[in-house]
Fold:
Amino acid sequence: MSTARPAVPVDRPSLGRPSLGRPSLGRPSWWRSARAICHLSMVRTFTPVLVLTMTALVLLPMLFALVFASRGFLSGDPVPFLVQRYDQLVSALATPIIALLLSTSAFSAESDDGTLLYLVTTTTPRWWIVLVRVLFAMVGTALASAIAVFGTGFIATGAHDPQHVTRAFGIAAAFGGAAYASLFTMLALLTRRALVSGLLYVVFWEGVLSSTFPALHYLSVRQWMLAVANVLTESSDTRLTEGPSLTASLVGAGLVAVLAVLSGARQLSQPRIGRVGT
Structure:
């Protein structure tokens, strides 16, 4: 027996009008469903603890820049300082952790309270649910990373951007944030321990393995970010030139994004009650 499934958001029935015949479900409204999914994501994601954690990650490189700027001319050349801080504190820490929090918190909360189970029983395409969630995490991560990069650069060098290093890392952080958001959204749909798995990935894969074995640079989002920054800056810092090419980085990030949407849609099309809700 077929069951009628409402689209997201659910339209209220018109009062006082008796329904005649079989109700027509119609085509889902892409804009309204995207707005509803983003609203659910914001409600589930922006808890006080998560906001404080994201704020601390954004402010951390700025604190280092304040110390650097307070020493005046004794601080030396700002370009090596900025490249090192952007790599260690933004590319390796702030951007992946923010992307992990934005990508996994909403799915985890909705899986626990059953909201995700409701979403997959509507007529909204599964791939659209996953795509909107990926875009939500992408935009949030890119904005937070850009604030960290440009705030740090402004404190250290003012309006002057030597060798365009701040602009280069601002774009690279947005690019890396998009790749991390895709990766962690896929992880959130494949496992119930997405937060722990993501932290292990950031610490061991990005922090230890890819730094130890150069062959793994082609599978490291952090190295993809450095490859993008290397093309956009005039700095010749060695840490920017040791990674993969720009083409390899763009192809890798594109594949991760496509794989996240396809595998996420497949996962939601074949839901397991224990995974998507109670």
Notes: The longest helix spans residues 78-113. Residues 206 and 220 are 6 Å apart (CA to CA). DSSP finds eleven helices and no strands in the chain. Residues 1-21 have pLDDT under 50 and may be disordered.
